[in-house]
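Milestone M4 deliverable, item 7.
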Amino acid sequence: MSRAPRAPHGYPALMSLLTGTEFSSLLWMLGVSLFLGGMGALVGLSGDEMLLTAFLVVMGVPVPVAFLYGLLRYPAFRDWRARLPFRTTGEWSSLAVPSNDDTWHPSVILVTLRTPGAEKQHAVEDLLRRFCDNANRSLLRGDFGTSAATWTAKGLTARGDLGGRVGWKLYRFVTSELARCGDSVECVDLKMGEGHRVHIAPDTMS
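Output delivered:
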């Protein structure tokens, strides 16, 4: 996630959040996929090697489909913060522009209620705990000492590492589950610390 965001509500930002991958890397993957799909079509037209044709076509399909899916999601993503029933403060623009796939930022989410109330607070606290459980399924586990920090919730505050697919899950949480509590929520603040790298241990198995 970049600390110098560019077009935080643009299509590249959506695709980066959706996939947890830099947009430039996605473009490279798209080029490879289109090449494989084109090769599959050419082989298929020759009438031979049907198994190879099927393999090339299957390998070439997923990334273009992801780009098309992003186009369908883009109208709802564009200017999404302006349509929320509560204010958002902090570093949401940084959330929308992931950087290196293995860079994670220690982050804190703080929800402020419009009016105090035990029932409203318990409802929001339960939503925050659910978000943490969901986010923890997408944490990157690296070699010793470099794993992304687990998400935990206490009261109206949640904290953990943002990176990869967790950014997309946070976006979905704020625009869906938390937005349904809009009458109760006054503001959602996001603080992000300096990024750290999570190094994946090499596979030494033969």
